[in-house]
Amino acid sequence: MEERKQQEPTPLGDLGEFKLIEHLTQHIKIKQKTSVLGIGDDAAVISGGNASKLISTDMLVEGVHFDLLYTPLKHLGYKAVVVNLSDIYAMNAIPEQITVSLALSNRYSVEALEEIYEGIQLACELYEVDLVGGDTTSSQAGLVISITAIGSQEGDKVVKRSGAKENDLICLSGDLGAAFVGLQILEREKSVYESDQKIQPDLSGKDYILERQLKPEARKDVIHFLGKENILPTAMIDVSDGLSSELLHLARSSDVGVQIYEDKIPIDPSTINSCEELNLSPLTAALNGGEDYELLFTVSLDHHDKVKALDGVTIIGHVTDAASGCQLVSRDQKLVELKAQGWTGV
Amino acid sequence: MEERKQQEPTPLGDLGEFKLIEHLTQHIKIKQKTSVLGIGDDAAVISGGNASKLISTDMLVEGVHFDLLYTPLKHLGYKAVVVNLSDIYAMNAIPEQITVSLALSNRYSVEALEEIYEGIQLACELYEVDLVGGDTTSSQAGLVISITAIGSQEGDKVVKRSGAKENDLICLSGDLGAAFVGLQILEREKSVYESDQKIQPDLSGKDYILERQLKPEARKDVIHFLGKENILPTAMIDVSDGLSSELLHLARSSDVGVQIYEDKIPIDPSTINSCEELNLSPLTAALNGGEDYELLFTVSLDHHDKVKALDGVTIIGHVTDAASGCQLVSRDQKLVELKAQGWTGV
Description:
2 copies of one chain form a homodimer.
Chain A: H1 17-25, E1 35-37, E2 44-46, E3 52-61, H2 73-89, E4 94-104, H3 110-126, E5 130-138, E6 144-153, E7 169-173, H4 178-195, H5 207-214, H6 220-228, E8 235-239, H7 243-254, E9 256-261, H8 269-278, H9 282-288, E10 294-299, H10 304-308, E11 313-321, E12 326-329, E13 335-337
Parallel strand pairs in A: 4-5, 9-12
Antiparallel strand pairs in A: 1-2, 3-6, 4-6, 7-10, 7-11, 8-10, 9-11, 12-13
């Protein structure tokens, strides 16, 4: 048998499942007090305490949620964790553990899997979350990553989508549309590359929007400063499918209407620039783009001054009665009904 | 546009993600006291209490874990739940919630998805588990089901793999090898069918082994009667990869050796019959077959009489010191070293 050269990738089959898991998880240290038992038994053990536990799960599928042509595996692992943590923060809770299930074909090497795990571990470190369990399996087709996040919060501080009241302020962290526009740029460069592989991709000045797409962050900081300022939102949701869709969810769950203002919607200048380049409407990118992982929340009017003073949070409108529906007030003062863009299983 | 006939399958694209989830989960009722909030928000909410929480996750991939040619979708949904619950029982805990993530291509109809969910719901009802969250997404390739189960148990009653002590009795519920032999029969009939589609599959007298493969059960009953009899195992694991592999895990985690007796290993007569038909060794099927989802546990010698009296539990050997290794005593009194069969990512 030929000896393998040092730089040659290690086929997955060279390690068994148990050795593979051991290899990938050898550097993982348990840090959360609530993580009693991590990887290595039939199930992980988490201490209960009096807090409520929050559970969220998401699946990322190759060719649907990511394209490996332009997605670094490390970023992919990172993003897969972050999108789940975002759901836990969106309940005003603190994520503490995750489990990771991976299906991948034998065309991946051990080194490729290591890269995914590096991204997963990096996110775990940054967000102080323990990886406590998982499953690694083969797949005849592409790569599938399924992550479940577990969080904690005192029961009366858990914030659902359903608590928004008339006259509440509608607040949003960060800015919108960048992740969507980043994806359009990547897709454009992919087409160019496919038509002529000698052309180098032109991604200069696109750092922000590309990072928003490839390596997004969850708004841990927002949950921390809301807690610090004693602001308990009446309702909250994370922006994963676009602002319109999330506002409609929130309005429906809370049995209210919403009115937001076009000129209040935060959009980064680099998003606007790229929109012009791509001949896209920045407003459409913000309303329907998705994958921003910002937090959309409502607070009582009493909190107006405190919220207004928060860095990186914008008041974009207010809650109305259910009969008024979900409206955008355009720059020229026209009322436009908000609509969710058709979902296609992504 | 042509009107769809009543029996024609409904394409998945006819419903959006949210309508699809609503449609599939409309009959789901929350029953567990600990399930505070189910499907419909960013995350599910589970009350903590003083109990420890147990988390287990498993992924089933089309073409790797199941073949849709002979796997009814309803059974598949059922099995996907059961294999996860088995992991929770194997910690001596009671499963209370699950989340379900599904990736499937557009070639599936809404009705096919309904069948999977019927199986999921049936398992939820039988095992008194709440479906509290999930994700449904498209896939360019086959069907992937990822389930996370959450269970509860008082911290000092959680049973790990690592507590077995020298002289403990090694106990096993049910019988082994049937699920593996069932799979071989299904694969044989598939080959026959593929060579000549006019030949009807010959599955007479195979009910037991086929059910063990296609619609296995988790040993909830064993956990209940162990609790009732006040027997706290010193270590426990479920038999998913074959008895040899599980004994090696248990021995390694507990830093002990094991000795089991060939003539004590419970194998059903119909498994033995099918093994003869297929020219397989029943012992090999039992040791390396896997997917039995029986519970393998160790108890202190003090419990000998109580365990011996338990219906459906067999004492198959005892724990030795680590230096003695993992041994099978054959029918002719020879010592054979137990080996795990090579895993290939399944």
